[in-house]
Amino acid sequence: MTEYDVENEVLVYERPDSLTDLNTHYCPGCTHGVAHRLIAEVLDEMNLKSNTIGVASVGCSVFAYNYFDFDFVQSPHGRAPALATGIKRVLPNRTVFTYQGDGDLASIGMAEIIHAATRGENITVFFINNTNYGMTGGQMAPTTLPGQKTTSSPNGRDVESQGYPIRTAELISQLDGTSYVVRRSLNDPKNIRMAKKAIRTAFEVQQRGLGFSMIELLSICPTNWGMTPVSALKWLEEKMMTYYPVGDYKVHPAVAEIKF
Amino acid sequence: MTRQLMKGNEAVAEAAVRAGVAGYFGYPITPQTELLEYMSKRMPELGRAFVQAESELAAINMVYGAACTGQRVMTSSSSPGVSLMMEGLSYISGTELPAVLVDVMRGGPGLGNIAPAQADYNQIVHGGGHGEYHAIVLAPATVQESIDLMVDSFDLAEQYQSLVVLLTDGSIGQMMEPCELPAFKPMKTEFPTWATNGAEGRKKRILTSINLDPNAQEVENFRLMRRWQQIEENEVRVKTYFMEDAKFAVVGFGSCGRLALSAVRAARAEGIAVGLIRPITVSPFPKKLLKEFSRKLESMLVVEMNNGQMLDDVISATENSLPVEFYGRMGGVVPFPDEVLEEIRRVAKGGLDTTGHPRDRWLTRMAEKGL
Question: What is this structure's pTM?
Fold first, then answer.
């Protein structure tokens, strides 16, 4: 038997201050928890917790405000970038971010995200892409892959009648108003570390008043995909990461100079 | 203070500025656009927030977000644009936030036209957005009254954590009249204990309209209803003219109430004992006052620029205790005072056939006129 030196134990991992001590309602294996934690860790590191106002959207993350330990408002479906605009314009010194899913941001909220981005609103957007409407039970989203089966594309997404997926990061990055638009993946430790670095960069961008930042996070939905968490992560890596490549789509020269 | 000649929409905008509005979010639509244009110049020069949104949907949600911080915020639009705002108005009401909307009504339905109308009375007074909520709705009849009520709107919104709508129309928005602007109020420096403005030195706050537990939602609904009872008790405003010895009353709001006053004056000159009741708050509606008058009067004539939307509220308030007649023009047509005078004469002559609903009788009379 191994002897443990309890007295000299060093704490190496704990709940970030920016997260509340609550069990989430997210399904087992869901990567919302990872995304929440990364955002919370970065806000802790930057000492921004009491300065931050989050905007939750409609979808599985509607209750995100329960899990973050700072001020939060909850937006109508798709309108989070408009709420964030309103908050940031009257309180320009606060840190404001939205947390939106793919149905929320890339379907019903497309006008709001495009125009918040093109105005160069000094806010940060976290865009969770898990290729379906999770909360309502797994319907086709704008991000659903060609041929992917969902409850509203039971024979697989037919691009002839149901159109093509939207590559959101690429689309938003085309707008002159944006400063930092990247895609990251939450499938393995390396990509998760890269995601955290991007989240830090996005908040640094906002702190410096450099304008609009968005991070698309490739995520899994084991429940609605009908997979185990492990096979869902494999599916993300094999299917999603080929259609939605991880990468930096817009890095304004001023952002490239940021060191932290 | 000095009097000056100002256009209704611009006077309302300046009144809001002087009332301490910290954020304006809007979208162009006739006959409201001058308000947006005025704000686009005025707000930035004062260092306050102005955004021309991508749609009315976005504009009202910017108001929603900004209202969450406890600041004074507003938007303005006209009928079709206000339809798009219904989602946000319901959420703002469900979250119990103070916010102010100026609705410069125009002819409808659909794209309709840009002429003055009052056809959105039901939409604004009796809901419009989903769920159950009430807005305080103020209906000015002059540019000066628009200014005064604009200032009061912010106070009422904050006092009751309520949506307040300044319900005006294309004629009042577009006309120029001499008016006096109020003094500047200082900008707010203290914010309510519910405001989400950063949790420095306090516990976090959440603002949301979701209640997955129906029982918890119902508690919320009861609270909203009881607050509304207080508003009905305390905030009714109405202006009466020549009512001391009146046997008949015309009931009209906003610009229609104003043109009815011309008809009432002309009828008085003919010796007809008629007065005017002009609700300033169409919500809360002056039910008690109408009920009291219904006991003293021989009949009432409701005049509106719509198909008789306030008429239903008058009938409900007077509980069928006297004959109520209706005269209205629709689709952006503004009645001439002479049309109203003719109706006053008809009502004063007596011997009214009161079978059926007043709206049906009106439709029959209008058909006889070829309409």
Answer: 0.96
